[in-house]
Hints:
The complex is a heterodimer.
Chain A: E1 4-6, E2 11-14, E3 19-25, E4 33-38, E5 45-50, E6 54-58, E7 61-66, E8 71-76, E9 85-93, E10 96-102, E11 106-111
Chain B: E1 5-7, E2 10-13, E3 19-24, E4 31-38, E5 42-50, E6 53-57, E7 64-68, E8 74-78, E9 87-94, E10 105-106, E11 110-114
Parallel strand pairs in B: 2-11
Antiparallel strand pairs in B: 1-3, 3-8, 4-5, 4-9, 5-6, 7-8, 9-10, 9-11
Amino acid sequence: QKEVEQNSGPLSVPEGAIASLNCTYSDRVSQSFFWYRQYSGKSPELIMSIYSNGDKEDGRFTAQLNKASQYVSLLIRDSQPSDSATYLCAVPSSGSARQLTFGSGTQLTVLP
Amino acid sequence: KAGVTQTPRYLIKTRGQQVTLSCSPISGHRSVSWYQQTPGQGLQFLFEYFSETQRNKGNFPGRFSGRQFSNSRSEMNVSTLELGDSALYLCASSLDLGEHTGELFFGEGSRLTVL
Lengths: 112, 115
């Protein structure tokens, strides 16, 4: 089993809709979780970090963490065409908080 | 505040050659990590440096090496290049402090093509 798995996509949503991106992880002791956004031809950019169970909101983005079920999700409300990118879930590797394991990413397209 | 700077941005090498990539982290960031990104394997961790010491190393052969200087700048080297080394090499810096550990700021990357 891969350490970090994401719904492979691609995912297409109409402009203004809610985009839901999911990620599961295998290491039960993970304490921190990250979402990165990567535009085509660009480098990843940190958009959300979450450390506690529950929801964390930042503008149109909401990260949800459920440690018991070992999943973390990212909701993008009022999706815009500029949100079209690949979204990468990242979790610290076993034994080191400084070594991130990334999921394969979910490619999101927001249709105007 | 300047971001992470990587040089060169693009380079082409032939099999058997070696390459050195450079990274200057964000001012004040002492942790520098390197990742390899390929279409097939995605983002994979290479190594991480802090205060000139390698703290973590990913599952890559010994041909991949790196170092960090006293000013936190870092270099990575790949020797005896193989076709499969063609990839985007990303450097990331981190404040590496408390809950900010794992919050990486990536440079634009160095795209290596091995012919």
